[in-house]
Amino acid sequence: MSIQQQKRPRFLRHTRQREAILRVLRMTHEHPTADWIYQEVRKEIPHISLGTVYRNLKILTEMGEAQEMSYGSSYSRYDGDPRLHYHFVCDDCGRIEDLEMPLVEGLEAKAAEWTDGRIESHRLEFHGLCRECNGR
Amino acid sequence: MSIQQQKRPRFLRHTRQREAILRVLRMTHEHPTADWIYQEVRKEIPHISLGTVYRNLKILTEMGEAQEMSYGSSYSRYDGDPRLHYHFVCDDCGRIEDLEMPLVEGLEAKAAEWTDGRIESHRLEFHGLCRECNGR
DNA sequence: ATACGTGCAAACGCTTTGCACTCTC
DNA sequence: GAGAGTGCAAAGCGTTTGCACGTAT
């Protein structure tokens, strides 16, 4: 269940591909999928491969140049408590804790002022290191 | 990109399998994966299949008896804005909007009182229907 | 009797990876 | 020229699905 760090090169190089991917990422607010980015970059670099897109997205995410909107692990996890509550996720071991803290008052109402969608619920999740992973 | 509703039966039946899955789900706070639940239920119903577990988890989630901790869509989406900010996710069409709202003050400090992990960041996401999907 | 649920295995589809080659530094 | 990055294709792997059979109502 542990989320392993993989080996990273000692330094990063500038390549057309990486630059183009970052440019596409910066240029859109659509929260694109890897494949959408691939199609877009292909207009400029027709022979780029999807694998390269994935590799660079991962690197850019690790460098803090982008965010990947998904969970660290590849599979879904289920919570048998259907009530709205918050979670703490350990970014190292993947462990998820329920937080017993009270819900933040008026959060959805506040957010409603910033979108014209209809808000029906929310999800709040804290990330960091659990006690065990922090200790080592 | 649209998240389709699939056909549901007109009524649900009680089965040993469904009951066992729900019981396992209720019994743990570990936010298990489908496979973990499968292994657990297998102790009681050795011939249950993983497909059945997935099917029931989906149904239980739709019935509001459990939560699935992942995004509605199966692929990752990327955000070229690396700053911490909140999102609005349309549960119908999958569209994701950036919210320009200010960060909630003191949120991580508050949460830190309820866990012994070290909090380093958080993620807040509002769900509902975007304007277009709400209108139809 | 009806039609929902299950087991099994194959199919799916997004993502990752091995390998030989290319390109930065 | 060392080693990081790329393209291609195959492999990985969690999840879904088709089908024939079982079973709750």
TrEMBL record, chains A, B:
Cofactor list: Zn(2+); Mn(2+); Fe(2+)
Keyword vocabulary terms for this entry: DNA-binding, Iron, Metal-binding, Repressor, Transcription, Transcription regulation, Zinc
One Pfam family it belongs to: FUR
Top-level taxon: Bacteria
Residues binding Fe cation, per UniProt: E105, H122
GO biological process, one term: regulation of secondary metabolite biosynthetic process
Keyword check for Transferase: no
A single GO molecular function term of this UniProt record: DNA-binding transcription factor activity
Note on how the cofactor is bound: Binds 1 zinc ion per subunit. Binds 1 Mn(2+) or Fe(2+) ion per subunit.
Keyword Iron tagged: yes
Record-listed Zn(2+) binding positions: C90, C93, C130, C133
InterPro entries per record: FUR (IPR002481), Fur_C (IPR043135), WH-like_DNA-bd_sf (IPR036388), WH_DNA-bd_sf (IPR036390)
Record family assignment: Belongs to the Fur family.
Protein name, UniProt field: Fur family transcriptional regulator
Lineage: Bacteria, Bacillati, Bacillota, Limnochordia, Limnochordales
